[in-house]
Structure formats: C-alpha cells, structure tokens
Amino acid sequence: MKEYIEKRVIDIAQFIVDEKATVRQAARKFGISKSTAHKDCVDRLNAINPSLATQVRNVLNTNKSERHIRGGLATREKYLHSKEESYY
Q1: 74 located within any domain
Q2: Which of 22, 37, 62, 77 could bridge across to 27 with cysteines, CB 3.0–4.6 Å?
Q3: Contacts of residue 55, Cβ cutoff 8 Å, sequence gap at least 6
Q4: 68 in a structural domain
Q5: What's the predicted TM-score (pTM) here?
Q6: Is residue 37 assigned to a domain?
Q7: 88 pLDDT band (50/70/90 cuts)?
Q8: Residue 50: what pLDDT?
Q9: Which of 44, 43, 13, 48 is nearest to 29 (CA)?
C-alpha cells in the first residue's frame, strides 16, 4: 500500500475515534468520498493497525445504532424551520 494512503487511513481513523465522528463527517473533512472513507476505516485500517481498527469499529457501530435517532431529529428540524418560514 502506498505511503500516502496509509497516512490518510490513520488520520481518518484518529479523527473518527477522537471526535466520535461519522464516516460522512470524516469524508467531508478529508475531501474524499464516503465510500473511500468507509473502505479506509473497515478494510485498509485492519491491515495497518488492528487495535485502532477495533476502536473505529466501536465508534461506527455506535453511530449505526443511533442513526435512526439522528434522522428523526433532522426531519424534526426541517419541519420546524419550514413552519417558521411559512408564517412570514
């Protein structure tokens, strides 16, 4: 694996663990696609640093279990803002 890819994988993994970030947030921060960020965290990281891969997997599993809640909150916010705009 090329050196710059290994560095990116470690950087993304550290960001996810430190910030409890989602794959989408990590992809946006590093300017890559969600698919690449996910592949880096799930496949490539395991070959480079298995202990960090375990930490990332725990964060991603937590995010996955909470995503339905985040989606509901986002929808709620969307409708609250649309109601405010319709009154004016």
Answers
A1: no
A2: 37
A3: 13, 17
A4: no
A5: 0.79
A6: yes
A7: low
A8: 95
A9: 13
